[in-house]
Amino acid sequence: MCPKKECCVAKSGLFRGITGCKDKRLFNSKNSTTYRRLKKSWQIHYGTGNAAGFTGKDTIRFGDSGDRLALGGVEFGQASNLDDSFQEKSFDGILGLAYDNYDKGNIVPPIHRAARYGLLEQEVFTVFYKSVGNQRNVYGGVFTY
């Protein structure tokens, strides 16, 4: 997630562009009474580009207000540098749904955290991908991990 509109200013030679957050929905920590910025940085090299930033802690919520899963003190990364290759992507950020052994920086993914607190019976989650035309190898529908 990009923390502010000026988040994509390249500060090192690792980043080709500075436009990775253009037209993205941005996280605004000022709208949260529970947010706390941490003094930890992160950097990930994806196959399609590089990303780097800092971490924060906040309460995150999944679901509708009547059936909501809320987790306090969740640590998450906020991008301050993104390659411009991310501009082409249709997502605004990556919510840490990886397995623990794939995670960077000793951050426990929210699904694992919820299961450890006994809030979930199993460490599984389902996402829905919208079908996009008749593109080859681009599948839509419900996927459970």
From TrEMBL:
InterPro entries xrefs: Aspartic_peptidase_A1, Pepsin-like_dom, PEPTIDASE_A1, Peptidase_aspartic_dom_sf
Gene3D superfamilies assigned to the protein according to its UniProt record, in alphabetical order: Acid Proteases
One record GO biological process: proteolysis
CDD domains hit by this protein: pepsin_like
GO molecular function terms listed in the Swiss-Prot or TrEMBL record: aspartic-type endopeptidase activity
Peptidase A1 domain sequence ranges: 1-145
Superkingdom per UniProt: Eukaryota
Gene Ontology cellular component annotations, sorted alphabetically: lysosome
PANTHER family assigned: BETA-SITE APP-CLEAVING ENZYME, ISOFORM A-RELATED (PTHR47966), PEPTIDASE A1 DOMAIN-CONTAINING PROTEIN (PTHR47966:SF45)
UniProt similarity note: Belongs to the peptidase A1 family.
Protein name: Peptidase A1 domain-containing protein
Organism: Ancylostoma caninum
